[in-house]
Structures are given as C-alpha cells and as structure tokens.
Write a structure and sequence with these properties.
The structure is a single chain. The protein has nine helices and two strands, in the order H-H-H-H-H-H-E-E-H-H-H. The chain has a domain of 95 residues: Winged helix-like DNA-binding domain superfamily/Winged helix DNA-binding domain (Arc Repressor Mutant, subunit A, Orthogonal Bundle), CATH 1.10.10.10. By secondary structure, it is mainly α. The chain is globular and about 65 Å long. It has a two-stranded antiparallel ribbon. Strand 1 and strand 2 form a beta hairpin. Helix 5 crosses helix 6. The relative contact order is 0.07. The longest helix is centred in the N-terminal third of the chain and has 32 residues. One of its GO terms (molecular function) is DNA binding.
C-alpha cells in the first residue's frame, strides 16, 4: 500500500499497478455483483480514462496554441469566470486557486502581463490592493478554444434525456466524493494546505514591515 501511494505521488504508477488495485477486492466490495455487472463497471472506468486522456490532450493543444503553461491557463480560466460574474481577483486569489506561493504568483502575473494576457486595475474598495483582469484579446482567443470545448460538452449533456442526466449527475457527484483524499493522501493534502497558509501569512507579515 505504501508503495502504491508513493508511486501515485511521484506519478510513476503504471497501468498494471492501477488495474491491480481496481480489481483487488480489498479496495472494492463486489460480491453482490455478477460478472457481467463487474465487466460493465470496468467499461465505465475505461470510458472515464479515455475522456481524461482526451481532455488532457485538448488542454495541451490549447496551452500550446496560446503559449501558456498549466498554471497560466488555470489563471486565465479563473479570471474569465470571475469577470463574467463581476467578481474582482487579486494576486492572493490566484495563489490560492492555482496552489502556488506568493513569489511564484508574482512571477506568473508579471509573465502574463508582459505577454499581453492580463492587466492590473485598481481595486474598487482597497487602494493598497491591485486587481487583475484578462485582456480582450486573450478573452477572445479563450472563447474560441476553451469556449468551444465547453459547448461541445454541453451538447453531449443536452443529447441525454432528463432521467439519463440525473443518473450522470448522481454518478459524477459520487465520483467527486470518492476522489476526495483518504488515508496517506489526506494527510499529504492537509500538510500542503497548511504550508500554503503559512506562506501567505509570512508574505502578509513582510508586506506590513
């Protein structure tokens, strides 16, 4: 078990390792299922794997097209969502959303600003704080790439009937709950969150000195 957790953390778990865990009755109770039902469940898992691979491939193409790395793209998406909802975004918001340090956030913001992807604007209520917004050009390109991608996903959902959509919602909700960190991974997640909080507190202290 410890070996498997370590391989996940380092990203070197092979397909055979994962398949072994998925098929191990220690991790999944399936005595009430027929072989046909087990096979069908495995087909669901395989379909999810194919969708994740397609999503990663499309995201990689989008990042290359826009000349952005993963953190850059997450920041752009966050800013676009915020602007659509009329919400302001500060560098601290980006650090929290992307999961990077204040120093890394400063470099990220500077890089995106220099490359014409975002601009700094005055905070509506706090003169000491700056806000960040995506430029019109980057927003337009994002709509043509990310926007079309989400439209195709919406069309796939719209093709289902109401009962099918409720089933998908229930399944994906259960999947999100199942994917919350457990055991050793939960401990690692809590530790990472604490480090982020401490880093933010140190940055705030330095800013006040």
């Amino acid at each position: 078990m410890l070996f498997f957790v370590a391989t996940i953390k380092t990203g070197i778990a092979s397909d055979s390792d994962i398949e072994h865990v998925v098929n191990d009755s220690e991790f999944s109770e399936r005595s009430h299922l027929s072989q046909a039902e087990i096979d069908q469940c495995q087909k669901v898992m395989e379909s999810l794997r194919r969708w994740r691979e397609a999503d990663r491939a499309l995201s990689e193409v989008s990042r290359r097209y826009m000349r952005l790395n993963e953190s850059d793209m997450r920041t752009i998406r966050m800013l676009i969502r915020a602007q659509q909802r009329g919400r302001v975004v500060t560098p601290k918001d980006i650090a929290r959303e992307v999961g990077i340090s204040s120093a890394s956030t400063t470099k990220l913001v500077r890089r995106l600003e220099v490359n014409g992807h975002l601009v700094r604007v005055a905070h509506p209520s706090d003169r000491r704080t700056i806000c960040l917004e995506v430029t019109a050009a980057t927003a337009r390109v994002a709509r043509e790439t990310i926007g079309r991608q989400h439209s195709r996903r919406f069309d796939a959902a719209a093709a289902l009937d109401g009962v099918e959509r409720e089933t998908v919602i229930r399944f994906l909700t259960a999947l999100a709950e199942a994917d919350s960190p457990q055991g050793y991974l939960a401990e690692a997640s809590d530790s990472a969150k604490q480090e982020t909080v401490e880093t933010e507190q140190e940055s705030d202290t330095c800013a006040l000195e």
